[in-house]
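Why predict the complex rather than its parts? Because the way molecules touch one another can change local conformation, and only a joint prediction can capture that. The input here totals 261 residues.
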Amino acid sequence: MQKVMLLQLGTGGMAWLLFTAGLLWCGFSWWRATRCRSALACVLAAITSVVCGLLVIALGLFQSYFFGTTGADDKLLEQIALVLLVLAGAGWAASSLCFLVAAGRSTYPRPEEFQTQPPHPPQE
Amino acid sequence: MEGEVWSQYAIFTWLSAYVVFFIGACILLRKKATVPRGLVFIGTLFLLLVNLVMFAVYTDWVTMDYNPVFEDPAWRSYMGDPPYPEWQRLLYWGTVLLDVLGKVLAGAGMIAEGRQQIAILRYRQMQLFQPQPSTGG
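Output of the joint prediction:
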């Protein structure tokens, strides 16, 4: 494979990993902090999308190593890969929808909540 | 079903996902503007722009003749004049750069947002164990 393609795949793959890791961590933390079900649904939908994305990559590698570039089986694999890609996109869409709901419900403490309490008077 | 139709479905679902994600980032920023949320907003904005370009290319609104395989020195020596306008090369690598930048910024922002939420949770839990002022005489 060309260097330029490897560079593109490497940087793109690392960025994708960071993005999905961020989404999973953010959704999980939201769920822990607020027990908001949308945040947990966001994590689950993102996992679905990641699994589908990994399957597409695996299928692409399998196709390039075992089937070459022509033949009837390639067509079938291509169709499966595209359906998986649609599923991955649907996973992202569901994940984004849950992110939207969780963002709407996420709470942030008011400034006065962080203010230190005045010291209590010494008890006699 | 034709493969092209499925690829159009795929790009449409991805684009709609990023549109919804961007609205979520806007809501977050509007509720409380913090640095992590700003990062998520900017990153998602970049990703939305990239996906808009990809949508235009996949649906043939913008014709792209450029392929990164043309960067291979063997291809370059074989081709002579490149069979694509220069702007297509810039557009392609521009979207690749924006995509990477958007994912890194949004990912880092979401990790920071998660850390902040956990810090808030710990602070609130700690508050529960603070000694309360005595009311008895």
